[in-house]
Specification:
The structure is a single chain. This protein has about 130 residues and is mainly alpha-helical. The protein is about 55% helix and about 0% strand. Helix 3 crosses helix 5. It is elongated and about 80 Å long. The relative contact order is 0.13.
Length: about 130
């Protein structure tokens, strides 16, 4: 059983990039990455009194199994942030991504501002 668990260092604050590469690779090996990343969309839920399709059952099974793997691959401190969505691997992953990936215009502006304000000091030469 332990051979089936991801062998990645747990996600902690400041480790998103490394963790994401490692867990994504592991999820791809298992065939679960599409469900977790959202590229494989959830099939339509069955209407009342209808039997769920096999595709729907398979998607739910992968989503549930990936949730367990993701929970075990994050630190106890990070688990607090996914308590409300802990039954869904796709929801856990998107919640963690929102927490760790900050794509804000002000961040980009500050990076550009820092870059363009670089100047040679007196006596320095380029090259």
């Amino acid at each position: 059983m332990s051979d089936n668990l991801p062998k990645v260092e747990q996600l902690a604050l400041g480790r998103w990039n490394t963790w994401n590469v490692e867990i994504s690779a592991w999820l791809r090996i298992k065939g679960w990455y599409g469900v977790v990343s959202g590229s494989t969309r959830r099939p339509s839920a069955p209407v009342a009194d209808a039997t769920p399709t096999q595709a729907y059952k398979d998607w739910l099974h992968i989503d549930s199994r990936s949730a367990g793997a993701l929970i075990l691959s994050i630190s106890p401190e990070e688990r607090i942030f996914v308590q409300d969505v802990q039954d869904s691997g796709s929801s856990i992953y998107s919640t963690l991504k929102k927490r760790h990936v900050q794509d804000k215009p002000t961040s980009r502006f500050n990076l550009y501002d820092d870059f363009f304000s670089i100047r040679l000091n007196e006596g320095e030469k380029l090259g």
